[in-house]
C-alpha cells in the first residue's frame, strides 16, 4: 500500500490513543478491503464491529495496531500528515519517553487535549 494513501486515510479516518501505557492506532471503516490492505502492509488485525442496528446501516470494521507496531506505523506516516500531525507527533514522543509506564495518564490527557483542537 502506498504510504501517502495510508497517511491520508489515517488522517481522515484514524485515531491514536494511549491505553494504560500502550500506544493504540485504530481505523474504523465500512470497506473492509482497505483495512485488509493495511494489515498486509503494516500488520495489526481487523475485527467486525457490532452488527448494524438498522437495515440501512452497513457493517463496520476496525483495524488496530498496538505498541511498537503502532509506533513504527506512526513514524512512517508523520511526514505526510496534516490534520493529525501534532497528535501523532505527541504520541511518538510518548512512546519514546523512558518513563511512559509511570506517566501514561498525563500523556493520555494531553493527547485528548490535542484531539479537541482538531475538532
| Helix residue percentage | 40-55%
How many domain regions?
A: 1
Computed CA radius of gyration, to the nearest angstrom? 15 Å
Instruction: Measure the end-to-end span.
Output: 28 Å
Order of helices and strands: HEEHEEHHH
- Uncertain runs with pLDDT below 50, 5 residues or more? none
Biggest sheet, spatial arrangement of strands: 1-2-4-3
Rough shape? Answer: globular
Average pLDDT works out at 88
Overall SS class: alpha+beta
Q: What is the CATH homology-level superfamily?
A: Homing endonucleases
Q: Which CATH C-level class is it?
A: Alpha Beta
DSSP helical segment count: 5
CATH second-level architecture: Roll
Task: Write down the CATH topology.
Answer: Endonuclease I-creI
In total, the number of strands is 4
Beta-strand content bin = 15-25%
Protein traits:
5 helices; Endonuclease I-creI; 119 residues; alpha+beta; 20% strand; 4-stranded antiparallel beta sheet
At a glance:
54% of the residues lie in helices and 20% in strands.
Folded structure, characterized:
The chain is α+β, with helices and mostly antiparallel strands. It is globular, with a radius of gyration of 15 Å. It has 5 helices and 4 strands; from the N terminus they run αββαββααα. The mean pLDDT is 88. Strands 1-2-4-3 form a 4-stranded antiparallel beta sheet. α3 (67-77) packs across α4 and α4 (85-96) runs antiparallel to α5 (100-118). Helix content is 54%, strand content 20%. It has helices at 3-13, 32-42, 67-77, 85-96, 100-118, and strands at residues 14-19, 22-29, 45-48, 61-66. The longest helix has 19 residues, at 100-118. It has a single domain (3-118), classed as Homing endonucleases (Endonuclease I-creI), CATH 3.10.28.
